[in-house]
Write a structure and sequence with these properties.
Blueprint: H1 19-29, H2 36-54, H3 66-70, H4 75-88, E1 93-98, H5 105-118, E2 125-130, H6 136-143, E3 149-152, H7 169-174, E4 179-182, H8 185-190, H9 195-208, E5 211-216, H10 220-224, H11 228-239, E6 251-255, H12 270-288, H13 290-295, E7 297-301, H14 309-313, E8 320-323, H15 330-345
Parallel strand pairs: 1-2, 1-8, 2-3, 3-4, 4-5, 5-6, 6-7, 7-8
The structure holds 1,3-dihydroxyacetonephosphate.
């Protein structure tokens, strides 16, 4: 259920921890103090297996096999496999491609097909593309069963009605979208979208079962006048007003400093990205609690390319990237995905 319905579950899906988690450890321990370490390792393995299932990553390797539960000398193999499994359980990496107002039907189709074709087989990567509205359906067909998700670049905060030219959350779900980008700086600037309007969209999207990628970021002038924290805080507070901590499971924050977006822009250094993701988590912790802050997915966007991707992926506390220009070229996009795959095994 966590794999198939993750973005649509109205609540977190977890487990009741009782005998099922304790039994293997109790059998190994059997009241003998010399078995303590093996029992602890078995308990930890079961806990991590449940964590994997909670994240939709459970596989056969988490099963408590006979050797693990009956041998007193299980410590070493269990510890070795725990180290391996801890790597598997590292946080997912995200690579999202915002195609903005680019491509045409034929290009959208072939771009999606080329990405599917070159996509590395790695369950720890979450890749999504955000084509323009008219091409969502053709791209969905190209992505079919590839594991690459579909997202839209905007929505209108109402389920239906007399809103000429607008698109509802339900329509996006209907064409197979899992995600929607909201609060992008280009819309904030060109269309003067306010935080209050963005907040309406966020709430409607979450209520409908879409996952939201909320973009926030400061201008160069705001950075130079030391207002970055204030700006990010204000965008988070207003953008997420009325959202509760359970809904936060469906929210991703994309930090996109305005001065770093576009080929002409400067690019934020890993140190700057690390600082800002920390500020974002701090604010989320104050608003929704520590657990929400820790599990929050934070992306960086702004001139990400195959040359700087490795440095950005290795930024402490960052979960991935939101790419504009380089998501329009399958080779470049795939090279960035590969940088994310490599970062997982470091
Ligand atoms: P670029 O990667 O072209 O700088 O765009 C970033 C962006 O705006 C993604 O939403």
């Amino acid at each position: 259920m966590n794999i198939r319905f993750k973005t649509r579950l109205p609540w977190p899906l977890s487990f009741s921890f009782a005998r099922a988690i304790q039994n293997p450890a109790m059998e190994i321990w059997a009241g003998d103090v010399s078995n303590t370490a093996a029992a602890q390792a078995a308990l930890l393995k079961r806990g991590m297996g449940n964590q994997a299932a909670r994240e939709g990553l459970y596989s056969r390797e988490w099963m408590m096999d006979a050797a693990t539960v009956s041998h007193n000398e299980a410590v070493r193999p269990v510890t070795a496999s725990l180290q391996h499994q801890a790597k598997v359980l590292k946080r997912k990496k995200y690579v999202f491609g915002n195609w903005k107002m680019n491509t045409n039907e034929a290009k959208a189709k072939s771009l999606a097909a080329a990405i599917v074709q070159g996509m590395p087989l790695d369950q720890s990567m979450q890749v999504a593309v955000f084509p323009p509205f008219p091409y969502l359906s053709v791209v969905r067909e190209s992505l079919c069963a590839s594991g690459i998700a579909l997202g839209a670049q905007n929505l209108y905060p109402a389920s239906e009605g007399a809103f000429t030219g607008e698109v509802s959350p339900g329509m996006l779900l209907d064409v197979g979208c899992q995600y929607v980008l909201l609060g992008h700086s280009e819309r904030r600037q060109l269309l003067t979208e306010t935080d209050a309007f963005i907040n309406q969209k966020v709430r409607q999207a979450l209520a409908a079962g879409l996952s939201v990628v909320l973009c926030i970021g400061e201008s160069l002038q705001q950075r130079e006048t030391q207002q970055t924290q204030q700006v990010l805080d204000a965008q988070l507070i207003a953008g997420l007003a009325g959202v509760n901590s359970a809904d936060m499971q469906g929210v991703i924050i994309a930090y996109e400093p305005l001065w770093a977006i576009g080929k002409q822009g400067q690019q934020a250094s890993p140190k700057q990205v690390q600082q800002e993701q920390h500020l974002i988590r701090q604010r989320i912790s104050q608003m929704f609690g520590q657990a929400s802050a820790e599990s929050l997915v934070v992306l960086y966007g702004g001139s990400v390319n195959p040359d700087n991707a490795a440095g950005i992926f290795n930024t402490l506390g960052l979960d991935g990237v939101l790419i504009g220009a380089d998501s329009l070229n399958a080779e470049q996009f795939l090279a960035i995905i590969q940088a994310g795959v490599n970062a997982l095994v470091v």
